Model the fold of this input.
Amino acid sequence: MSMATIPTQTHALLSIPVDSTTDFTVLAGHCENLADALLHRDEPALRQALCRRLAYCLGQLRPTLDDAIPPHLIESLTVDELPTNSPRFEPDADLLCGYTHALARLLTERTLSAEMEPILTGLLFDLVSYFADELRAPRWIRTADGVKFIEELDMVKEN
Done:
């Protein structure tokens, strides 16, 4: 009697400890790394494991989004000069059409075809990267009048 062997897929990102106490900036980095690994792997079992881990990390991150920023992270989110670039999600027309077409087909057909999977994996990567960049973006700037919220300075510029 032979026993079927189930191959185990291992990847370093699957063993990084993550829980509800992990800093949101660290979780954002894990999410981005998982989405990147998912984008570059072909093995179905590993892709499934990476996707489950990404969903788990996003699930740990979501309830913390409205929490106050922990004091030990404030310095890392404070800059001396306004950032020249801010996070953006700007797919070109071809990518945007591919993303929206694949999503519409997925919702219509309720199945993920082999053709749609790489497109939606690309969308997932782009969205996770944008989200992670937003979470890790500076919030405060040091000024002659003390530390100010960057958003406050942006509002002053608009008025």
Strands lie at 78-79, 140-143, 146-149. The chain has two domains: 10-76, 90-158. The CA atoms of residues 87 and 134 lie 6 Å apart. Residues 116-136 form the longest helix (21 residues).
